[in-house]
Specification:
heterodimer; A: Cyclophilin; 2 domains; seven-stranded mixed beta barrel; 5 helices; B: alpha+beta; Cyclophilin; 13 strands; about 30% strand; Cyclophilin-like_dom_sf (chain B); EC 3.5.1.54 (chain B); Allophanate hydrolase 2 subunit 1 (chain B); ATP binding (chain B); ATP-binding (chain B)
Chain lengths: ~325, ~220
């Protein structure tokens, strides 16, 4: 156990501390925040033997470069398929490695995804708000946004040789352009043809994309009447349509109430995948009914759980692994080790 | 009060709606149902978000589903509108001196600034819902005489503690935000209390009134 001090040499916009989120305060105007891709943070933490919702760093496409000033610690990167350049070794995809004093770790956008999660085998010291470090971007409360020059301290830092190595990325973690929704709750305010075009025509993400939501581009969705509905509770995943007929999907730091009609609401797991898409990526909405939505979510949760259980197991220690590989490979005889 | 409608929201929530127009009795009924759901401790329900005419019951889809939650909520019906007598009351101190929009509100209402202040202080407000930003409690009950519409364009960087009005609603801001509402005073009341056991001053349904103080007392 040791102490680690990191210095932020570069942090793009929207790079922030996030834990699993602070649910339960929407009635006071506080959305849960937490990772844009909840599975990504869970993978990074689980791969290190940490609780799924431990504090990590959410890295945007703007990238993050850290210098290790003091100590050594094992880290994991998951979420989108970013490139990782640490201590002179360049890789891409999900991985677990160790960072030592004097080394630099750079995480930048890669083959796919908008958000990567950097977790450490240790405790990141970040400010809490309402019991959580998750950063609420609108207010800045919680652990906060990272800026160049900031220092990050990690207590109880560990080297986890038994965790080192690349992690496979399961297909269900990547966006595939299909986004499941339950229609409503205000579909009655739209012309029937609008609901039909919402489901039958593609939409593109625009670069009006932050932690509060992403604006889409596509067929204009006509309201059947000009109206203002009383402000009502909204969820992460609500697809609200403003008077201009353009849909916006609300994300992790959404406002808790809104007065625009919601044509549909995206299922929880699909919100994570949608958040990993990039501006100009195309998607299609597919409607399911409430019972199908619950069934899909349960199947998806089962797949996630099975994957996390697999990566939660420590790998054999490096020595054991080398020994086993050598024995399997028949390269080294027992008496030579 | 008519029975509410139930609408599924994604895989994990139900919207329970009593009406589509803002109405005092509807809001009180929503608040009563919110209390009833909290008391019932329905299995799998994680949080309830009350608003002006409806509430959202958010549940864990791995534990329950729309049908079960709807049945559990229907079993609590009907509920009688919550009365102010049962609600906690809060008196907030407000300094009305140098408020940026007080003169404009007075002019729009064709009354003196003094009369606007007196009307604002004489009324009792009810927390109809929270929304928009952390701790933004929408207080219903601005007297008709001093109701003004929202400004056509928002003004940036309005400081925390601003007391502002738009239509029948009043709000005390908690963080620096843009707003199109009219700022008629400043309060040192902390709606985000900093107390981990009670982080927000009001519960939805509580009543609020304002007491005028001098700048020196702020």
């Amino acid at each position: 156990m040791s102490r680690v001090r990191l210095r932020v040499s570069h942090a793009g916009p929207l790079v922030s501390f996030q834990d699993g989120g602070r649910p339960g305060h929407m009635r006071f105007g506080v959305s849960a925040s937490g990772p844009m891709d909840r599975f990504g943070l869970a993978v990074a933490n689980t791969a290190l033997g940490q609780p799924t919702g431990a504090t990590g760093i959410e890295v945007s496409l703007g990238g993050l470069v850290l210098e290790c000033r003091e100590g050594e610690v094992t880290f994991a990167v998951a979420g989108g398929g970013f490139t990782i350049d640490g201590a002179g070794v360049k890789s891409s995809g999900w991985t677990v490695r160790t960072l030592h004093a004097g080394e630099t770790l750079a995480i930048r956008g890669g083959a796919w995804g908008s958000w990567a999660y950097l977790a450490f085998a240790g405790t990141i010291e970040a400010d809490k708000w309402l019991g959580h470090t998750a950063t609420h971007s609108m207010s800045g409360f919680g652990g906060g946004t990272l800026r160049s020059g900031d220092l990050i301290d990690i207590s109880e830092a560990q080297i986890r040789e038994d965790r080192i190595g690349d992690l496979p990325c399961p297909a269900f973690a990547k966006p595939d352009g299909t986004v499941h929704v339950v229609i409503g709750p205000q579909d009655q305010h739209f012309a029937p043809s609008s609901v039909e075009s919402f489901l039958s025509t593609p939409f593109e993400l625009t670069d009006a994309f932050d932690r509060m939501g992403v604006r889409l581009k596509g067929e204009r969705l006509e309201l059947s009447e000009a109206l203002s509905i009383p402000s009502e509770p909204v969820l992460r995943g609500s697809v609200q349509v403003a008077g201009d007929g353009v849909p916006t999907v609300l994300l992790a730091d959404h406002q808790t109430t809104g007065g625009y009609p919601k044509i549909a609401t995206v299922l929880s797991h699909d919100v994570d995948r949608l958040a990993q898409m990039r501006a100009k990526d195309s998607l299609r909405f597919t409607a399911v009914d409430a019972a199908q939505a619950v069934a899909l979510t349960r199947a998806q949760a089962q797949a996630r759980r099975a994957y996390l259980e697999e990566i939660a197991k420590p790998r054999p220690s490096l020595n054991e692994r080398l020994l086993r590989e050598n024995l399997i490979g028949g390269v080294v005889k027992g008496d030579e080790t | 009060m008519n029975a509410p409608t139930f609408k599924p929201v994604a895989d994990c929530a139900l919207l329970v709606e009593y009406g589509t127009e803002i109405d005092d009795e509807i809001n009180r009924t929503v608040i009563a149902l919110d209390h009833a759901i909290a008391a019932a401790e329905i299995a799998g329900v994680q949080e309830v978000v009350p608003a002006l005419v409806n509430l959202l019951a958010v549940f864990d889809p791995l534990q329950t589903d729309h049908v079960q939650v709807e049945a559990a909520i229907r079993a609590l019906l009907p509920v009688s509108p919550a009365s102010d007598a049962e609600a906690a009351h809060h008196t907030l101190e407000v300094c009305y001196e140098d408020a940026p929009d007080l003169a404009a509100v007075a002019k729009a209402c064709d009354m003196s600034a003094e009369a606007v202040i007196n009307a604002h202080c004489a009324a009792t407000y009810r927390v109809g819902m929270y929304g928009f930003a952390p701790g933004y409690a929408y207080l219903a009950g601005v007297p008709r005489d001093i109701q003004v519409p929202r400004k056509s364009a928002p003004v940036r960087d309005i400081p925390a503690g601003s007391v502002m009005i738009a239509g029948p609603q009043c709000l005390v801001t908690t963080i620096k935000m843009p707003t199109g509402w009219s700022i008629i005073g400043q309060s040192s009341a902390r709606i985000m209390t900093g107390d981990p056991n009670r982080p927000f001053l009001f519960e939805v349904g509580d009543t609020v009134s304002f007491k005028r103080i001098r700048r020196e007392a702020l």
